[in-house]
Design goal:
This protein is of the alpha/beta class. It contains 18 helices and 19 strands. It folds into 4 domains: 97 residues, 3-Layer(aba) Sandwich (Rossmann fold), CATH 3.40.50; 63 residues; 114 residues, 3-Layer(aba) Sandwich (Cobalt-precorrin-4 Transmethylase, domain 1), CATH 3.40.1010.10; 124 residues, Methyltransferase, Cobalt-precorrin-4 Transmethylase, Domain 2 (2-Layer Sandwich), CATH 3.30.950.10.
Length: 459
């Protein structure tokens, strides 16, 4: 984070704009909208700026005396030497300063603003690309209608009453989410605040029954945050507690609510932070405390994710839960590696298996796996790669069968190593591959030579 995003109260405070042209006029206008008193200093000041209500014009070259009593400064001249002087003197006086289009001279940045007062959204690229920030603001402007300001004002009006009635902070947040994402909000947005208030009061009367703990079992996909579903993103922002696995990438964990409690329960080979039974019990306990629990799992929770065991426990305890599918590693990683899992010329079926070693062996249906014209995808099979390849050859698969290992698939650190059943174990040892990996076996691997240019995460 290059800049700390904050909102400043400048109502009734004196702010300085150095410059008298069109850019200075725009900056002064923003300050005036925020309720500031504006002092403008420049050798020449456009009349459309100097005549604005609330503007005090000083026709002069900038001097340190113009900083007296000022809360913040904006330099908006076309003379960099003047802008540098303003920046230097403001820094010496410990006054926040913004120099338009010159981030190196700034102590704060003026963001692009979406105004739905009292709801405010600010966009900034840290000065890297003002055009991009304005584009992003435009996209959000189309998604959030103007009358959201009415909804924010409604919530403000009843904030203290709800705070007194619903004293538990976690339950209070859930109460407001129910109110602002349901019929109450619809009534406010259509202008029927009388009905909205009546519904809110009914919710307050029934809040003990409405506010309940719940668990969201969410598939986080194979690693790239762009592969999350819209529903997953929505629930990630609602949860009070995040219980996440080792295979969930940090960028995805960072997309959950900033103030949510985060509990790591990841399991690595021979290193289990919590046993599965303890994870199940943890979800139950947190839900009984009235919290919304996000159980974030890599890939899809129902494909080698033990999600079924977790919801069995939740159902037995009568705890409400939702399940959100995720893109499983086989699909996402294969796509990013340029390897289609099925192809009419190579494979008409696909099998997913786990490659966990137990006592040095794998208990798999080798005859089924060794059938021709199919693709085999092996999860968690790196440690048993030698055994895997040897068993497939032993059960009739050609030793020249193409095979690929993808490490950290769909992320910026993705690596793809290819070979054959006879050669890949040695290649993998030389490449010093490490988990997480996915193994893909079959003729479709040869298509990577044609399709490896396709890497969506590099767009």
């Amino acid at each position: 984070m290059d800049f700390l995003p904050i909102f400043m109260n400048v109502k009734g405070r004196l702010c300085l704009v150095v410059g008298g042209g069109e850019v200075a006029k725009r900056k002064a206008g923003v300050l005036l909208e925020a309720g500031a008193k504006v002092r403008v200093v420049a050798p020449e000041i456009d009349s459309s700026l100097s005549e604005q209500a609330g503007v005090m014009s000083i026709v002069a070259c900038f001097d340190v005396q113009h900083l007296e009593g000022v809360m913040l400064v904006i330099a908006a001249t076309n003379d960099r030497s003047v802008n540098e002087q303003v920046s230097r003197l403001a820094h010496e006086c410990n006054i926040p300063v913004n120099v338009v289009d010159d981030p190196e001279l700034c102590s704060f940045i003026m963001p692009a603003i979406m105004d739905r007062s009292p709801l405010m959204v600010a966009f900034s690229s840290g000065g890297a690309s003002p055009v991009l920030t304005r584009m992003m603001r435009g996209k959000l402007e189309s998604l959030i209608p103007q009358n959201f300001s009415r909804l924010a004002a409604f919530a403000e009006r009843f904030r203290e009453q709800v705070k007194q009635r619903v004293t538990n902070p976690a339950k209070r947040r859930i109460f407001w989410e129910n109110a602002l994402d349901g019929v109450v909000a619809e009534k406010v947005l259509t202008g029927d605040e009388t009905s909205a208030e009546s519904m809110l009061q009914q919710m307050l009367a029934d809040e003990d029954n409405i506010v309940r703990g719940e668990v969201y079992l969410v598939g986080a996909g194979p690693g790239d945050p762009d592969l999350l579903t819209f529903r997953a993103l929505r629930l990630m922002q609602k949860a009070d507690v995040v219980v996440y696995d080792n295979l969930v990438s940090k960028p995805i964990v960072d997309m959950t609510r900033r103030d949510a409690e985060r509990i790591y329960v990841g399991k690595k080979r021979a290193d289990h932070t919590l046993r599965q039974e303890e994870i199940n019990a943890l979800l139950v306990r947190l839900a009984h405390e009235g919290k919304r629990v996000l159980r974030l799992k890599g890939g899809d929770p129902f494909i080698f994710g033990r999600g079924g065991e977790e919801i069995e426990t939740l159902a037995a305890e009568n705890i409400p839960f939702q399940v959100v599918p995720g893109i499983t590693a086989a699909s996402g990683v294969a796509s990013y590696a340029g390897i289609p899992l099925t192809h009419r010329d190579y494979a008409q079926s696909c099998m997913f298996v786990t490659g966990h070693l137990k006592d040095g062996t794998m208990n798999l249906d080798w005859d089924a796996l060794a059938r021709p014209r199919q693709t085999v995808v092996v999860y968690m099979g790196l440690q048993g790669l030698d055994t895997l390849c040897a068993k497939l050859i032993e059960h009739g698969m050609l030793d020249a069968t193409p095979i690929a290992i993808v490490q950290q698939g769909t992320t910026q650190n993705q690596r793809v190593v290819t070979g054959t059943l006879s050669t890949l174990p040695g290649i993998a040892a030389l490449e010093k591959l490490h988990a997480p990996t996915l193994i893909i076996i079959g003729g479709v691997v040869t298509l990577r030579e044609k399709l490896q240019w396709f890497h969506p995460h590099h767009d």
